[in-house]
Design goal:
The chain is an alpha/beta fold. It has 3 domains: 85 residues, Orthogonal Bundle (Arc Repressor Mutant, subunit A), CATH 1.10.10; 94 residues, D-Maltodextrin-Binding Protein, domain 2, CATH 3.40.190.10; 106 residues, D-Maltodextrin-Binding Protein, domain 2, CATH 3.40.190. Helices cover 40% and strands 24% of the residues. The strands form 3 sheets. Strands 3, 4, 5, 6, 7, 10, 11, 12 and 13 form a 9-stranded mixed sheet that branches. Helix 5 links the parallel strand 3 and strand 4. The longest helix has 28 residues. The relative contact order is 0.14.
Length: 301
């Protein structure tokens, strides 16, 4: 006989306190339940149930076996639910946290396509410039840019971007161009206040040396688009990802602040809570973003 069926019959007899009620719950005959339990006891070489004319109760061995059997049956039920869930059409409310600049410029324009592809999903997109606590704040996933903090969250890479010091030609005409990293101390810098490391810029010199530059900013804001506008207006040097400045640089309105200095590479990731499986709505949105950004990379935003 099937081992799982034997185990299920035995556990149900213990749960219901008898063969008759167990048979009714399982939707099979009383004799079938009895055969399953007898086969299980024979296979194990142990008596699992005390049977009297009035009641049925587990033996000491039977009670120990019941505890383990119930765990196995629960796991089997979860496995079945997993398959059903993964095959079901994505639906429900999807709550997403995305950095304001990236959300406005690169998620909002494609969101309509996603909603038309998955009409049973309702999206609640929250744009902010902080790292939310996904589980405690009730988010299904977040899109994050740059080095990921150590955590228990799962992550999938969506694309890459580059971060570079950029400046307007008008600024260079007025203040001159820095030729090396140390020259930045003499220039007007534009800082992003929500950056995890504050006013410290992590840079790679043309020699390949890693440098950490800390300098007071002439302007500090918590929004990348505002920093971009300030740089375009000739207010100073900004250190921004290329999905913000790419168009302006192609048009010549911005240029690299220090020539021959390699940009810093950054990953763009979808992060979501840990678990044995991913909800269909979350999986659908991440797959959609991966496909949408498949050809995106440094200089292509």
């Amino acid at each position: 006989m099937d081992r799982l069926s034997e185990m299920e019959a035995f556990a149900m007899v213990v749960d219901q306190g008898g063969f008759t009620d167990a048979a009714r719950k399982l939707g099979i005959s009383k004799s079938a339940v009895s055969k399953h339990v007898s086969s299980l006891e024979t296979r194990l070489g142990a008596r699992l149930l005390n049977r009297t004319t009035r009641r049925v109760s587990p033996t000491e061995i039977g009670l120990a076996y019941y505890d383990r059997a119930r765990r196995v049956l629960n796991d089997a039920g979860e496995a079945d639910a997993l398959v059903t869930s993964m095959q079901s059409a994505p639906s429900g409310t999807l709550r997403v946290s995305i950095a304001t600049d990236f959300g406005v410029n690169h998620i909002s324009p494609i969101l309509g396509t996603f909603l038309h592809e998955y009409p049973d999903i309702t999206v609640n997109m929250v744009l902010n410039n902080r790292h939310v606590e996904l589980i405690s704040e009730g988010f299904d996933l977040a899109v994050r840019i740059g080095e990921l903090e150590d955590s228990t969250l799962r992550a999938r890479k969506l694309a890459e971007t580059e971060k570079q010091m950029i400046v307007s030609p008008a600024y260079l005409e007025k203040y001159g161009r820095p030729t090396r990293i140390d020259d930045l101390n003499e220039h007007k810098l534009l800082h992003y206040s929500n950056q995890a490391n504050g006013s410290v810029w992590k840079l790679t010199a043309p020699s390949g040396e890693k440098r950490h530059i800390r300098s007071a900013g002439w302007l500090t804001v918590n929004d990348g688009q505002s920093l971009l506008n300030a740089a375009l207006g000739g207010l100073g040097i900004a250190f921004l990802p290329d999905f913000l400045y790419a168009d302006a640089m192609r048009e010549g309105r911005l240029v690299p602040a220090i020539e021959n200095m390699a940009p810093e590479s950054l990953g763009i990731y979808a992060v979501y809570p840990p678990g044995r499986y991913t909800q269909p709505k979350v999986r659908a949105f991440i797959d959609f973003l991966v496909e949408s950004f498949r050809d995106k990379g440094p200089g292509l935003w």
